Amino acid sequence: MPMNIDLKNLTIAKAQDALKKGEFTSVQLTQAYLDQIALKNKDINAYLEVYGDALKAAAHADELIKAGQAGPLTGIPLAIKDNILVKGKIASASSKILENYHATYNATVISKLGRERMVFLGRTNMDEFAMGGSTENSAFGVTKNPHDTSRVAGGSSGGSAAAVAMDGALCALGSDTGGSIRQPASFCGVVGLKPTYGAVSRYGVMAMGSSLDQIGPFTKTVEDSEILFNAIRGVDVHDSTTITEETYSPARIGAKKPVIGVPRDFLKGDGIDPAMLAAFEKSLAVLKGKGYEIKDISLPNISYSLMVYYVLMPAEVSSNMARFDGVKYGLYVDGADGIADYFETRGAGFGREVIRRVLLGTYVLSSGYYDAYYNRANAVRAMITEDFNKAFQSVDIIATPTTPSAAFKIGEKTADPVAMYLEDIFTVTANLTGMPALSIPCGTTTIDGKELPLGLQLSGRHGDEKTLFEAGKDYEGQ
Amino acid sequence: MITPAEITKLAQLSRIKLTDADTQSLVKEFDSILGYIDQLKKVDVSLDTEGRVGAIKNIMRPDIAEDTSPADREKLLAEAPRREGDFVAVKKIIAQD
Q1: N or C: chain B end with fewer CB closer than 10 Å?
Q2: CB-CB under 8 Å, B40 with A380
Q3: CB contact (8 A) between residue A378 and residue B51
Q4: Is the pLDDT of residue B52 over 60?
């Protein structure tokens, strides 16, 4: 039976309520999303594959809902970034080297959400192995921004962000190594969270920069972000970096409302769009109106963040990519002998950006350059973390724009890797320090007659997602 | 700055086959990226060189092999591009006299 569900205004919280009241079933809700995907995915390319068993999972969820056994996520349709393993399904990381690879086990986040009886709609497009900021590095075509299809959806989790923005999923999972959840969330006008390092298990997500990677949710509201985050967080024996709720004990400064710090010096760069800055100031005014104290802070070494990131991340990439050898899984290209097999397989299987980063990582780790790059970057990383720890002695949240500007044109930055890397300027710090950061839609800017979303980034102390959610919900209630 | 020979050497170390055109464009891109990250050399590094990301510590477990069920083993082997029976197959790496 066709059903008119208002997908545009639907949230996880509202959908769960409607499912429990019997206003619609999970099968009807899932079908509504499948219909939207059928209609829009050809243009947007958010999904690489829609799973054939989504309706079956929805029917199972409906039985639980009828029996009164539903949790907060039972029957809720979810999109999954293609670097997260779902047992038996292809997980390609948008790379030719894994084009036909079937996951042999479930990622911990998938096991957790499977137990909640969420409905897995399909796997979403991304920059190859999560390396990029525009989803243009996918081996399977770019993901377009649902707000303007001549523009990128952002990246690397562009498919997940676009899936939610085009009403092709109620929520999605992504991964964030330098901004790969928050930047596309900002470009597509949805909420994206990079949790505290260790808050969510990475078991079963393809490693990129292991000291930086986190999995996090894409949702339409901050409340939904909190619901999904609470469902995926927690200690996991399969990921020794996971933390408990007691690992950190963040202590609030603000008595009534959190105190917000703004690193003014960092916002003076030329590359920042005045429309972005205006939207940012307006957001601060909204929060001030809600009783938040706003004060200027200084983060002396923050301008080095992106340079540190572009030393450490490729170094980690170069070792994480070593596993793709054409022996255990994935693409195999026949060479003259055993070692030539590696060269042929990796040369044919990896895209340009992956090769660039593997070589760059090999360079910064090679003898003679190790101290000048890798060791120095680690030291500066520690200095940046100290700056943040000091700042968090007088504030509870640090606010910046999520990105320097709204979504850029497809092809605009592909010729210049450094211009593309500068997209991460506001987001990489949270990965370097391990602190949580949330991107929330904060208005739009009109370019060429199209309204393009902008994002406000709130970052907090280690383990203090709660304060970010609190401020985010206050902001949304404007 | 970086030479084509250095790029070739990095590709050798990384086990990646490059075309000449790839090497040429990588030389240009490396110059631009290294020019950017070289600014790190200006920082007065006063802290210790150990990178720190929050409260991370080593987690130990006993080094015990866990058995895999034949069904799981089959799933893993099914992903290997080349196999012989219950083994992953690779080319011979030691020459015979």
Answers
A1: C
A2: yes
A3: yes
A4: no
Mean pLDDT of all residues in chain A?
Answer: 96
Interface with chain A: mutation pick from B9, B13, B16, highest number of A CBs within 10 Å: B16
The dihedrals phi and psi of B22, each to the nearest 5 degrees, come to: -60, -50
d(CA A421, CA A98): 25
Query: Of all residues in chain A, what percent carry a pLDDT higher than 90?
Result: 92
The reported pLDDT for the residue numbered B50 is 53
Q: Which residue of B has its CA nearest to A309?
A: B37
Contact B15/B8 with Cβ under 8 angstroms? no
From B82's Cα to the closest Cα of chain A, the distance in A is 7
- The reply to whether B26 falls in a domain is yes
Looking at the domain assignment, is residue B24 inside a domain? yes
Taking only the tens place, the pLDDT of each residue in A354-381 is 999 999 999 999 988 888 899 899 999 9
Q: Do A341 and B91 touch (CB under 8 A)?
A: yes
A379 interaction partners in chain B (CB closer than 8 Å)? 45, 47-49, 51
Can you tell me the distance from the alpha carbon of A20 to that of A357, in angstroms, rounded to the nearest whole number? 48
**B46 has pLDDT over 70:** no
Residue B10 lies in domain: 4-42
Quick one: closest CA in A to B34, which residue? A360
* Closest residue, chain B, to A360 (C-alpha): B30
Using a CB-CB cut-off of 8 Å, the residues of chain B touching A418 are 32-33, 36
pLDDT per residue over A392-424, tens digit each? 999 999 999 999 999 999 999 988 888 888 889
Residue B23 is assigned to a structural domain of this protein: yes
Nearest CA in chain A to B74: A104
**DSSP letter for each residue of A73-142:** TTT-EEEEETTB--TTSB--TT-GGGTTPBPSS--HHHHHHHHTT-EEEEEE--SGGG--SSSTT-TT-P
Asked if B77 has any chain A CB less than 8 Å from its own CB, the reply is no
Nearest alpha-carbon partner for A444 in A405, A473, A476, A415: A405
Number of domains in chain B: 1
For B43, the closest of A346, A380, A432 (CB atoms) is: A380
Q: Is B53 a residue whose pLDDT tops 50?
A: no
Which pLDDT does position B44 carry in this prediction? Answer: 84
B38 lies in some domain? yes
Residue for token pair 């105190």: A259
Interface size, chain A vs chain B, as Cβ–Cβ contacts under 8 Å: 164
Higher pLDDT: A266 or A478? It is A266
Of A469, A470, A460, A456, the residue nearest A189 (C-alpha): A456
Options 3.90.1300.10, 3.40.50.1000, 2.50.20.10, 3.60.21.10; CATH for A7-232 is 3.90.1300.10
In the prediction, which pLDDT does A157 show?
98
Under an 8 A CB cutoff, do B33 and A344 touch? no
pLDDT at B31: 93
Partner residue opposite A318 with nearest CB, options B14, B55, B58: B14
Of A126, A118, A254, residue with least CA distance to A184:
A126
pLDDT of residue A420: 85
pLDDT of residue A478: 67
Closest-CA distance, B67 to chain A, in angstroms, reads 16
